[in-house]
């Protein structure tokens, strides 16, 4: 018999903890050619904006060591077309759907939340706080606790009580715990981390930035140590708040690393680009790792690395290769 | 689909490397213009993204093989060039929208720039099977970078070669000779694969002759399967609206006159969702 | 004839732009077994503290994808032993020496600067601002512009006018330009970036943090996109301020990337652990790359990627592999 | 020094892999107890740090070869295990302080745990060349992880084997049999290489007998050359002061009774520079 892999985002139960990361699973249709999106813990949409957006010029991607820089710029059809053409397809298939939203002002986020409020089939709203605040000289919301909290509060107020609101945070702040706490105080039911820190690459042949946009978001295994650290710090400070961990998850071991740090679910982004079957594979690997460690319930693994040193839950590590 | 293929043979073809990989399942389903992506670097590599390659040849041997032809550009292609027979290669494919084929027999000019010609021979096969006449125009900066000249000569009604340094065929670009080829063959359609600049030029010629042109474009791709939105270019839709569409799943084959070549690498101000632009 | 590789840290001329990064070149003696430390642009010492420090418990290192986490904890013999046993050896060999200092209060940094003020042979003082401020609940100086500026001002005041003071910044802040500007306003003659962002790794076998200290600093190629971005942003905002770029430099191409972004010199850290000959090799590779691009003077390459698109300095890229 | 060596032979030895690498310059200078570090993963790897290995055997063939013996633990050793003859391997060495040798002939017990015994044979050679008597005690959890039993039998005056599961020799640990071996041989000194726990136990036995003991320790290393300060452990100096010293350059060989085994993995409160501790 398999392990109990149910994951809980506040009061919402997911059958398993492996989600797609926002902006990395297309509309769902593309991934569905490879595996069943209804089997995901949940499918997270790209960040939906009020109006259609053409995004940034190309080149939009550059590879870096164990990382990927992207500057897609939230290209998307806008919320109306999303509701008309994209969401119904996911709903029909019984997919659990986390809708990510992005905006330029707290009011725009709230308006998006209102547009989504009466739409059936939405499992949770994820608030992408890594958007520039057009009322504060383009300063990203996630960089400032009070701006982030204002957005969260306005989305929470506009969203049905039984739909959790997830605040998605960036690592490139001086104090991620402070931003996390502000979001929770603002009404966030759960947190997602990490969004991509800002990075840059220069093509030494053209002697120009590799991305047309100059800077881009860094994702992939290169940033996993930052993700683990953020999840760890926030879980230590706010142990009761569910965290969706992400950043460089490519294997079940990576997923377990974030879970041990305090994530109750994980999202897979960049790994999908290399392996379109990454989500079911990672879930399989995670289940096996849990079982090998005698952990019958995923919930028992969440935050387990925080237990005091020498405490007794260090069970069954003997089944792994002996460490010299 | 994903297949862990086995390298059957590797060979050098002038400036290029050719890899034949046993990949049943992928080979079966390939149609002219499809591409595949290869995972590069092996275990614990620092290279995360797959590399895209047109499928040159498909053969039924060993349950199905595909052949890729590539030049070494960076570390990923360098790694591929080092593969030896019996090594494994992780492929995903077939990907993309293949070339649409004409319903009725007609005359087609196939234009290939550098390794872009690799995908034209399967296309020529398919066209000839439908009773089409096929003429080739292949070009590159120099002779060693013209791919497939011999095969083109065998298959094409005519074959015209160009090199910028004059080391093979006519000195110049494919677009210098294309009007003559179209006129001589009384061509009904053009297919082209190669560098963006060439595709732009070829499209201009076809538009001049008022005949349809299909181009297979190349953009930097992070996923190849349509989920990452990094490979976009401005293309005019049936409704006349320009959208930033994905080279990987909406293409790579497009009607040439629909691609806004001048604006590739930008967001045209009148594209759907352009900053400050009108909203649908 | 080779290119002119002289680099300038404020008014101080270095014969070449390749330095060792603080904490990565030991006392200099260890590297000297492999290559001549006097040939370096400069040798940067580990961060010297007032008192001897035993550092953090082991394990102090963990490998991550294209990265390295370390938690050495500024182990060192203290400034007196440094001056007695380590500095003289470097001075005797004619090494240009950047002395890095670390402290827990602005006063401690100032006291260190005073101890060093009368010591001959010091090329520059680098102020490691990634130390916890014991007067502000352990908040790292580099995370807060005003705290950083206070430290810099006190060091600047205690240092001889002809010895440049370099402020070393961290990337894990919301606005690196603001911190950089504060440091320059506080009297910094140059900036060094990046120090290691805080990361973490959990051993999924022991289900414990891989480092005894829990978190550690992330270095190596994984962080290079963050370094390039920081250098780019700061150079754009403060074009006149010399920047020592570092973070994941392992080849001449990497060094050139930081230089094109705006660094006038680069430092090599983690790469030394894999290749003890990294500094001379990187210098050789850099020189060749500059020459292939028709850049006769290093100074002409500094910040070159900032020139407006389509401008004419795009010379000689034709000598590289043609890009399709 | 750094050498890009060529793999001469690879073989399996029970649970271990043995690699012989042509590495002139390194081989010449190796003395018993030295180690080398290998760069792993090849070009574009995501693995940055070198892996440390004791030098098992040095031979003069081909200008000088070194043999490494290792078990697969993680991705770096897995990569090494996949190397084949003629592949290249980038080595730095010899590194570390080798075992000090006694001035006068005496009787030495050499204790090896798992692959730790790999470095004892060169040591035995050197000791015997000085007229010393050598006795071996080798142990491991199971028979397949005892390394070098045959060779020990050939070289040693006596050889005692232990396994925790009893699959070879006596059931138990090397420390269970060591007192008997020391007593029987009337040993003057002990050398030990193996897991930290074992080194601690061996040191305790030697201290009991009041004979000197040299241990070769193993700590996680990022550089192996003394510059990174990640490989430290608390060792008592000649002045009685405990310092956090580097396993790579201050060791790996230490006098056993100087190593504060109980405190490895901590900063003892009385170490020089310990938090809140006294300052020199
Ligand atoms: C549909 C399609 C078909 C292609 N067919 C062929 C072919 O048949 N033969 C051939 O030689 N090349 C082909 N290419 C180009 C080939 O994908 C690139 O040469 C290759 O990805 C370069 O990888 P690299 O590691 O050597 O270079 P790098 O420049 O180091 O690659 C770095 C990153 O940029 C991406 N990238 C760089 N250049 C391109 C490019 N031109 N197109 C897409 N991604 C790029 C890579 O995928 C990688 O993620 C094709 C590209 C596309 C999109
Ligand atoms: C002086 C010395 C001599 C050694 N001699 C041998 C030998 O003869 N045979 C043998 O099998 N092993 C030996 N080891 C241990 C060997 O270095 C590790 O098994 C190896 O580094 C593990 O690498 P990995 O990638 O397989 O494992 P991982 O655990 O994935 O390695 C990750 C990182 O941790 C470091 N690391 C992990 N374990 C150790 C360790 N025990 N010691 C040092 N660094 C470690 C690695 O260098 C690497 O940076 C020796 C270690 C030292 C310090
Ligand atoms: C191409 C791309 C597009 C992304 N788009 C979004 C987005 O629209 N909204 C968002 O919140 N995060 C977006 N992200 C960030 C991911 O959701 C995720 O937080 C990040 O990539 C780290 O996870 P990974 O390393 O598994 O990719 C995007 C990432 C990538 C690589
Ligand atoms: C083991 C280790 C020790 C370090 N010690 C110091 C230090 O004492 N002071 C300091 O300012 N930076 C220290 N650093 C940071 C480096 O100087 C450098 O900023 C960082 O590692 C990025 O460069 P790299 O990627 O080339 O290593 C240390 C880094 C490492 C890996
Ligand atoms: S490459 Fe990802 S959408 Fe086209
Ligand atoms: S491993 Fe770097 S100092 Fe010992």
TrEMBL record, chains A, C:
Its EC number is 1.3.-.-. One of its GO terms (molecular function) is dihydroorotate dehydrogenase activity. GO terms for biological process: 'de novo' pyrimidine nucleobase biosynthetic process; 'de novo' UMP biosynthetic process. The keyword Electron transport does not apply. FMN binds at residues 22, 128, 168, 194, 220, 247-248, 269-270. Residues 7-290 form the Dihydroorotate dehydrogenase catalytic domain. Belongs to the dihydroorotate dehydrogenase family. Type 1 subfamily. This is Dihydroorotate dehydrogenase. It comes from Microbispora oryzae.
TrEMBL record, chains B, D:
The keyword Nuclease does not apply. Residues 1-101 form the FAD-binding FR-type domain. The keyword Electron transport applies. One of its GO terms (molecular function) is oxidoreductase activity. Gene3D superfamilies: Dihydroorotate dehydrogenase, electron transfer subunit, Nucleotide-binding domain of ferredoxin-NADP reductase (FNR) module, Translation factors. It comes from the Bacteria. Its cofactor is [2Fe-2S] cluster; FAD. Keywords: 2Fe-2S, Electron transport, FAD, Flavoprotein, Iron, Iron-sulfur, Metal-binding, Transport. FAD binds at residues 76-77. Binds 1 [2Fe-2S] cluster per subunit. InterPro entries: Cyt_c3_hydrogenase_gsu, Dihydroorotate_DH_ele_sf, Dihydroorotate_DH_Fe-S-bd, FAD-bd_FR_type, FNR_nucleotide-bd, PyrK_electron_transfer, Riboflavin_synthase-like_b-brl. GO terms for biological process: pyrimidine nucleotide biosynthetic process. It holds the Pfam family DHODB_Fe-S_bind. [2Fe-2S] cluster binds at residues 223, 228, 231, 248. PANTHER family: DIHYDROOROTATE DEHYDROGENASE B (NAD(+)), ELECTRON TRANSFER SUBUNIT, DIHYDROOROTATE DEHYDROGENASE B (NAD(+)), ELECTRON TRANSFER SUBUNIT-RELATED. Belongs to the PyrK family. This is Dihydroorotate dehydrogenase electron transfer subunit. It comes from Microbispora oryzae.
């Amino acid at each position: 018999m398999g392990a109990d892999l149910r994951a809980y985002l506040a009061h919402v139960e997911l059958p398993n903890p492996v989600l797609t990361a926002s902006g990395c699973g297309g509309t769902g249709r593309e991934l569905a050619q490879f595996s069943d999106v209804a089997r995901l813990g949940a499918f997270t949409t790209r960040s939906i904006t009020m109006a259609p957006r053409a995004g940034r010029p190309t080149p939009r991607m550059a590879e870096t060591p164990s990382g990927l820089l992207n500057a897609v710029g939230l290209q998307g059809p806008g919320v109306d077309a999303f509701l008309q053409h994209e969401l119904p397809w996911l709903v029909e298939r019984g997919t659990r759907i986390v809708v990510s939203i992005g905006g330029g002002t707290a009011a725009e986020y709230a308006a998006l939340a209102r547009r989504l409020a009466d739409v059936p089939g939405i499992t949770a709203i994820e608030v992408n706080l890594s958007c520039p605040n057009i009322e504060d000289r383009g300063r990203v919301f996630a960089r400032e606790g009070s701006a982030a909290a204002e957005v969260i509060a306005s989305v929470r107020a506009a969203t049905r009580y039984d739909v959790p609101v997830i605040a998605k945070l960036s690592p490139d702040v001086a104090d991620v715990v402070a931003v996390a706490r502000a979001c929770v105080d603002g009404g966030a039911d759960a947190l997602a981390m990490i969004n991509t820190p800002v990075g840059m690459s220069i093509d030494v042949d053209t002697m120009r930035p590799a991305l047309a946009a100059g800077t881009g978001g860094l994702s992939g295994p290169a940033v996993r140590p930052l993700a683990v650290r953020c999840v760890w710090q926030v879980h230590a400070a706010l142990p009761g708040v569910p965290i969706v961990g992400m950043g460089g998850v490519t294997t079940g071991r990576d997923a377990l690393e974030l879970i041990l740090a305090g994530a109750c679910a994980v999202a897979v982004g960049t790994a999908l680009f290399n392996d379109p079957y990454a989500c079911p594979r990672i879930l399989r690997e995670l289940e096996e790792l849990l079982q090998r460690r005698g952990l019958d319930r995923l919930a028992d693994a969440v935050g387990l690395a925080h237990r005091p040193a020498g405490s007794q839950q260090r069970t069954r590590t003997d089944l792994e290769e002996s460490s010299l | 689909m994903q297949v862990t293929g086995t390298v059957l043979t590797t060979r050098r073809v002038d400036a290029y490397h050719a890899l034949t990989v046993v990949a049943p399942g992928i080979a079966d389903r390939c149609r002219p213009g499809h591409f595949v992506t290869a995972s590069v670097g092996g275990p614990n590599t620092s290279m995360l993204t797959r590399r895209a390659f047109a499928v040159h040849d498909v053969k039924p041997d060993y349950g199905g093989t595909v052949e890729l032809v590539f030049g070494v550009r960076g570390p990923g292609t360098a790694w591929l060039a080092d593969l030896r027979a019996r090594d494994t290669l992780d492929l995903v494919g077939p990907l993309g929208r293949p070339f649409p084929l004409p319903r009725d027999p007609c005359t087609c000019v196939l234009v290939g720039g550098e390794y872009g010609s690799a995908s034209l021979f399967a296309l020529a096969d398919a066209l000839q099977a439908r009773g089409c006449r096929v003429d080739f125009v292949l070009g590159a900066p120099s002779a060693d970078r013209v791919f497939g000249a011999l095969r083109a000569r065998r298959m094409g009604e005519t074959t015209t070669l160009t090199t910028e340094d004059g080391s093979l065929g006519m000195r110049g670009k494919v677009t210098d000779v294309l009007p003559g080829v179209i006129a001589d063959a009384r061509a009904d359609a053009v297919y082209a694969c190669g560098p963006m600049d060439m595709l732009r030029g070829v499209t201009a010629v076809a538009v001049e002759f008022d005949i349809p042109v299909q181009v297979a474009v190349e953009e930097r791709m992070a996923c190849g399967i349509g989920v990452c939105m990094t490979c976009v270019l401005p293309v005019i839709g049936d409704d006349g609206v320009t959208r930033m569409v994905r080279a990987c799943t909406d293409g790579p084959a497009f009607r040439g006159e629909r691609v806004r070549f001048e604006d590739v690498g930008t967001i045209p101000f009148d594209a759907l969702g352009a900053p400050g632009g009108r909203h649908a």
